[in-house]
Specification:
Number of domains: 1
Distance between the termini: 80 Å
Family: Belongs to the complex I LYR family.
Shape: elongated
Radius of gyration: 24 Å
Main location: mitochondrion
Protein name: LYR motif-containing protein 2
Helix content: 55-70%
Oligomer: single chain
Number of helices: 4
Pfam family, one: Complex1_LYR
Function: Involved in efficient integration of the N-module into mitochondrial respiratory chain complex I.
Length: 104
């Protein structure tokens, strides 16, 4: 059997490469969810960078563990209103903490 005859080889390759086209990322998210996710990650990075200014190493490590735990605890939140609330309260808490760190 000659697969090259009649262009069947191309069909065989296309069928094989498209057989199961599932997304590696799972469910796709909406634009609003994407934006809020970006804001949450930016807040997380900002907090982590800011904790570098804490002079005591044990306090710095404890603060980083707390921040990580809080973000992990709310990882599966999908309600946009709740996500916005968490980001705004997180920012407010971090701003208060920054004022305290700068006073050290």
């Amino acid at each position: 059997m000659n697969l090259l005859a009649g262009g069947r080889w191309w069909h065989a390759i296309r069928t094989y490469s498209n057989a199961s086209r599932k997304s590696r990322l799972g469910r796709t998210m909406s634009l609003d969810h994407f934006i809020q996710r970006s804001r949450a990650l930016a807040l997380y990075r900002d907090i982590f960078r800011g904790t570098a200014r804490i002079p005591d190493d044990s306090t710095k490590d404890e603060t980083r563990r707390y921040v990580r735990a809080e973000f992990e605890r709310h990882r599966d939140v999908t309600d946009l209103g709740h996500i916005r609330y968490l980001i705004s309260t997180g920012k407010a808490e971090w701003e208060g903490m920054q004022r305290y760190i700068q006073g050290l």
